[in-house]
Amino acid sequence: MADAVDFANDHAEYFLQLSLRRLARLPDKPSAQFCEDCDEAIPLARQQSVAGCETCIDCQSLRERRR
Ligand SMILES: [Zn+2]
């Protein structure tokens, strides 16, 4: 019985470490400060909420419509 509990704890520990590592993972690239398409400044809130964003909200929606 004790073995089963240990196994479960190891398992929980494993997934905890996994999710912590995922949270700590840095974005692949920093967010752009200026839009790649129109050179408008990207609001800091957007830079921070969208990791690795390249465009302002307007251009992003244009890009998504083009897709
Ligand atoms: Zn733009």
From TrEMBL:
Keywords of this entry: Metal-binding, Zinc, Zinc-finger
SUPFAM superfamilies: Glucocorticoid receptor-like (DNA-binding domain) (SSF57716)
InterPro entries: Znf_DskA_TraR
Lineage: Bacteria, Pseudomonadati, Pseudomonadota, Gammaproteobacteria, Pseudomonadales
Species for this entry: Pseudomonas juntendi
GO BP terms, alphabetized: positive regulation of secondary metabolite biosynthetic process
Ranges where the Zinc finger DksA/TraR C4-type domain occurs: 32-65
Pfam families named among the record's database cross-references: zf-dskA_traR
GO molecular function: zinc ion binding
ZnF (dksA C4-type) residues: 35-59
Protein name (record): TraR/DksA C4-type zinc finger protein
Keyword Zinc-finger attached: yes
